[in-house]
Amino acid sequence: MTDSGFMANLHQQAKWTSVFDLPLSALHPSLGNFDHVRRLINNLRKERYPNGTGFTGAIQLVKVHASLPEDNAYIHCTETHIIEGGKVFYLVICMSKFMASALICARYISIDTAFKHVHGKWQEFEMETWDENRMISVVGACAYTTSQSSRAHFILFTRIFDFAKQITSLPILFHHIHGTGLHIWVADAHRGQALGAGMYCQQLCCNLDGICPMEPGRKLRDLDPYDHLQRFYRLCTVHFKQHIHDLRSHISESAYIAMLSIATTTEYDIEGAIAIIKNGRVKAQSWLKDKIDGKFAIPALYHPRSKIPLDVWQASPSSTNRNEQAHRNINCDGINLTLLGGIMHGMHYDFHMQSSLTLHSTLGIYVHDQLSTVYRHAQTSIGRQVLSQRRIAKQSPRKSPQKTVVYQSDIIPPLPQLSFGLKTSKTSIASSSNSTTNTPHNTGAICHTRENTRPTPYTSAAPCPQQMNGSSSYPSYYGQFQSSENGGSYYRQ
Fold first, then answer.
1. Average pLDDT over residues 401-426
2. Most CB within 10 Å of its CB: which of 1, 117, 131, 179?
3. What is the pLDDT of residue 314?
């Protein structure tokens, strides 16, 4: 009884004017029995959808859309394939003509899989791109699958690009193969997705005699799937950092820093970082083993190991956040739906987005008051990163600050001797002609007399027992001693 559309129609049909929702029992007393209501709904569902609302119902929907005009067709195939272990792989591909055109013309795409929209064994897979003219995210293809193996993803990519070519009469192109087309794919660290994409590129090159532009000594047809991935595949840095953050309480701090340092465009001693991770705890070692065994992960994070040009790497998106936003938007219409219900919800959402883009290009009416610009996106991104870091900092276990003890051997040569009255919060020490004041480089301060056999160390968090007579601060070449409320002093650089 929480569906707003159902309740609105029910109120309209019953001419209900009360501020409270109309109970079903107000229509007929027998509707107060929920089991009776369920039987009525099931009978109506069988009458409306005689083939059910699962895979068989989707097959019937494909036949209906095959008879529609090309601009209105959305669902294109419902197929089954036999993959590893004799398992049956179910595949449903949804794509409008507008989505196919966006996918074929894309330079950067991101891929992601969600699990909430449709219940049961089904997973929702999306390929998303960025419309640079309208500055908005566009879903290029949507599919519902039952497996995430490499073979299943190879079939998935093959069928998606086949239908895109069939709809637009244009082939899919990769920049590292054809010199134009797709530059970068951004995905999470799932092995099946990565290897499936590499296998598809390997199939594209099996009959080509061309030379690889990034390695002139090799032919394109000689590249294996992992060689292809080094030329166009990147990992989402948001997922990468989040997974490491989840392990932080189980690994050493040095291993944590070394793991984060892998995602960079700057060349450094990565073998040293790998050695630090290997010497970490068990979970750090397992994390590293997963990245090394996957073969594609390190080049997809550490640019010096990749074959992607630096300017292309820096111009591409670094996360799959736009995919995540698209999944969230569609989930607002419902989650744990039947397969047929998920397809219908996705179709309505995608066509609504298409109408919004068409309205902007024809009449200049945008979906928000403020236009989407590069500056606004950068501003929003920085703000979100700040909020994210604050949230992570609150969730992280608080550690007491490390106190650095500074001794006389660590201090720069002393300043000229001055005869000041030294004072601490507990005792007052009168300076003599042989007293010396030392000022440290950065964190701590030591104040002692030459008669002391051992200098007294002070940490950065402890007050420095020095204060001028009748003055609240002492200017020096390196910093300034500030008075505190309790009578002591702190060194401020």
1. 44
2. 117
3. 92
For residue 396, name the pLDDT band (cuts at 50, 70, 90): low
| Full-model pTM | 0.74
The one-letter amino acid at 213 = P
Sole residue written with tokens 């992570």: 392
Q: Say which residues have a Cβ less than 8 Å from residue 454's Cβ, sequence separation at least 6.
A: none
The pair of structure tokens assigned to 285 is: 């070692």
pLDDT digits (tens, 9 = 90+) for 265-290: 999 999 999 999 999 889 999 999 99
**Six token digits for residue 266:** 């700057």
Under 8 Å CB-to-CB from 225, ≥6 apart: which residues?
195, 197, 198, 199, 201, 202
Q: Is 369 exposed, middle or buried (0-12, 13-18, 19+ CB in 10 A)?
A: exposed
The candidate with the shortest Cα–Cα distance to 81, out of 166, 140, 159, is 159
Taking the alpha carbons at both ends of the chain, their separation in whole angstroms is 66
Burial class (CB in 10 A: 0-12, 13-18, 19+), 314: exposed
Cα–Cα distance measured from residue 214 to residue 200, given in angstroms and rounded to the nearest whole number = 19
At position 72, the amino acid (one-letter code) is N
Contact 126, 111 (CB under 8 A): yes
Q: Using alpha carbons, list the distances in angstroms from residue 417 to 182, 476, 478.
A: 70, 12, 16
Residue 462 has pLDDT above 60, yes or no: no
- Tell me which H or E stretch contains 357: helix 339-363
Pairwise CA distance, residues 158 & 197, whole Å = 9
Round to whole Å and give the CA distance between 456 and 417: 18
Instruction: Provide the 3-class DSSP secondary structure of residue 126.
Output: strand
Distance CA 447, CA 458 (A): 9
Q: How far is CA 75 from CA 143, 146, 212, 410, 459, in A?
A: 9, 17, 37, 73, 69
Residues 6+ apart with CB under 8 A from 44: none
Determine if residue 354 is left, alpha or beta; phi over 0 gives left, psi from -120 to 50 gives alpha, anything else beta: alpha
Beta carbons within 8 Å of 33's beta carbon, 6+ residues apart = none
